Amino acid sequence: MKMCFALVCLAVSIACRATSPDPRAAVQVELSHVRAGGSEQAAGDTLRRYVFEPAANPYVRLAPARPWRGTGEWRLRVQNAMPWAVTLSVDIEGTAGAHLTATVGLPAGPAQTLVVPLHAVSPRAFGMQAGPPMPVELAGQRIVLATTVEGAPALQAIRAVRLSIPAPQAEQILRIGDAEVAADATLHAAYAGIVDRYGQYTRGQWPEKIDSDAALRTAHARERTQLAEAVARGHEGNPLTEAPGWFHTRKRDGRWQLVAPDGQPFFSLGVNAVVADGGRSYVQGREWMFNDLPPAKGPRDTFYGEGDSRRDTGASSGMAYDHGRWFDFYVANLYRVDGAGWREAWRTRARQRLAAWGFNTLGNWSDEAIARGHGLAYTRSINIAGDYANVATGYDWWGRMPDPFDPRFEAATERAVAAATDGVRDDHWLLGYFADNELAWAAPGPQGRWALAIGTLRGDPRSPAKQAFLATLKRKYGDALRLGVAWGIGVTRWEALEPAGFQAPLPDEAHPAIAEDYSAWLRAYAERYFRTVAQALRRHDPHHLFLGGRFAVRTPEAVAACARWCDVISINVYADLPQHGMDLDRLHQLDKPVLVSEFSFGSTDRGPFGAGPVPVWNEAQRGEAYARFLAAAAADPAIVGAHWFQYADQPVTGRLLDGENAHFGLVGITDIPFDGFVLAVGSANAAATAP
Predict the structure, then answer these.
(1) Is there a single domain that holds both residue 551 and residue 633?
(2) Residues 312, 253 within the same domain
(3) What is the pLDDT of residues 612-671, one digit of tens each?
(4) CA diameter of the chain
(5) Domain boundary among 191, 216, 237
(6) What pLDDT shows up at residue 299?
(7) How far is residue 466 CA from its own chain's centroid?
(8) 108 vs 35: CA distance, rounded Å
(9) By CB atoms within 10 Å of each CB, which of 9, 303, 340, 371 scores lowest?
(10) 100 sits in which H/E element
(11) How much is the pLDDT for 239?
(12) Whether residues 101 and 228 fall in one domain
């Protein structure tokens, strides 16, 4: 319903404690699809009632008669009067067109103080990808802090603040009270003292959280008894038997299968990152975030180390506290439980757990000693690195795309394959090899499919990939003018395409040749990459499977090339169901087995602040989501396995690589399993592999 401005705009005096000459200056209140009610008392607060109507973007805009100052933090007393959480968008309008925006979740309950720092900030400024959960009690107050604020680095003054609820489906009621601008103190306080001596979040509580060394040892002793009983009952899983064959693939009755060395069908149920070094987090420069860190020189100094994760990647962009001294909370806890022999004790425990929970494969980035010779399949990664050329797609989360047309890439691949196959060519427990991880084959957005082609043409004239692309275009068109007509650009000479930074056109309906040429180039690029790796692998190890490139962002052309050169197409799927994260119809047409090389579900009720790409509300829903996903994967005729990411939770303050700090684990930072989740996982795994 369209409303006249006069009907939705009224002036109301709101008590404003801004530090200005007139601390109780009137505030103009503009309403759009919001009804204002009377003032109400709530626990000492005087709050005004606002009803947000179902609309695209109902809002309340607060404009002070005299601008608030633009430094520090903006505070507002607010209460969500609904029995559920409400998403609130905040737009702070500065002078000269500057804006700051934030989105927060307002939980139901008593009045609280909404705090928005008056400068752009995110948890990355504190060395992690996700910030502390809100609300939080600070100095006796219930605070909802916007930990991510986007926009201007700073504001000179605040002209207005707009509060909106995005597209509510029913009426939502908020009670709004006093506003103020105060010193910027809440942001630091929200991150101070958030990690205890065991690496756990200090302000949260959950069933597996421990509070003493004795409690930690008791929990592990109880589990040791349970694992021993499981082994004694013969419920330690279904380990592989010694056999002379190799893992291979076959298609039987319309369904793809992995086949184990003993000739039996094998649905690969794996876990990634089963390693003991995932609990490391930088402490240098942010010691104030940690309680009870041991001294750097003393009995626990072996759990400290030095590192530097600064890299030119999207994953590390803007990340602070990314170098210097780190502390390994996970290993420190293993030492508390098992002493100097912690590593072998941990390996044995991990092996028994994986078997008891129904896993039969050690996934990528794992400690092979857990698996090799113990009836557990494992995988290896071919990590190609060198001084070869690269191409930027604009996504580049883990770095730019390797240039497979550079002879130095072929040499680097040969070295990487030789290293990866060393010592395992004759190991029957080895399932196969992955090549690299989540390369930037595409970019986000509707035109992201063409990013690699556009990035190639944007490259330096000496780029081998660019030279190869231009050569294909010259062979097709001969005359640059013909290319210019086909692409709808003013090009008459080939030299016009050579400079670095050339802005290639986006495909459109009026010029179908652009998409045709880009698609042909994407096929050629992917063919060159996968052929180079596959041929090197066959020279060094003819026995084991080539498991593909662990796709994240991808193009149809790249997946088709992988299907041609790899034994299995591996795809990291972050979605509620496999079919919602990949084009299964297209994969069926390619007629190649598919491995879900990563999937995961996270929640924020077990300590770490992040829930990952596919969040669920709580721990119980993690188990339910796992079971649904795995059942769908096992039912699909192309999918031959699924690997969970990952074994242990990431540190509260972020892992070394990129500050990722999510609750993905089967076990916590204390190496204690999340009992309800692993019980659900075990049941789902048994169902997926049942005859």
Answers:
(1) yes
(2) yes
(3) 999 999 999 999 999 999 999 999 999 999 999 999 999 999 999 999 999 999 999 999
(4) 86
(5) 191
(6) 63
(7) 31
(8) 20
(9) 340
(10) strand 99-106
(11) 65
(12) no
Choose the final residue of a domain: 457, 484, 516.
516
289 has a pLDDT exceeding 70 = yes
Q: Say how many residues make up the chain.
A: 691
Task: Please check whether residue 532 lies inside any domain of the structure.
Answer: yes
d(C-alpha 79, C-alpha 72), whole Å: 23
466 domain-assigned: yes
- Please check whether residue 212 lies inside any domain of the structure: no
- Kind of pairing between the strands at 59-64 and 248-252: unpaired
Beta strand spans in 318-393 (E):
323-328, 361-362, 377-382, 390-391
Distance between CA 222 and CA 207 in Å, rounded?
15
User: Which residue range forms the structural domain that includes residue 115?
Assistant: 5-191
pLDDT category, 154, cuts 50, 70, 90? confident
Using DSSP's 3-state secondary structure scheme, residue 683 falls into helix
Residue 196: inside a domain:
no
Which residues make beta-bridge pairs with 172?
Answer: 52
pLDDT in tens, 93-143: 999 899 999 999 999 999 999 999 999 999 999 999 999 999 999 999 999
Q: How many domains does the chain have?
A: 3
Considering the domain architecture, whether residues 147 and 269 belong to the same structural domain is answered as no
Examine the domain organization and report whether 319 and 379 are in the same domain.
yes
What is this structure's pTM? Answer: 0.94
DSSP per-residue letters across 618-663: SHHHHHHHHHHHHHHHHHSSSEEEEEES-SBPPPTT--TTT---B-
Tell me, what amino acid is at 589?
Answer: Q
CATH number, domain of 120, equals 2.60.120.430
Tens of pLDDT, residues 250-264: 999 999 999 999 999
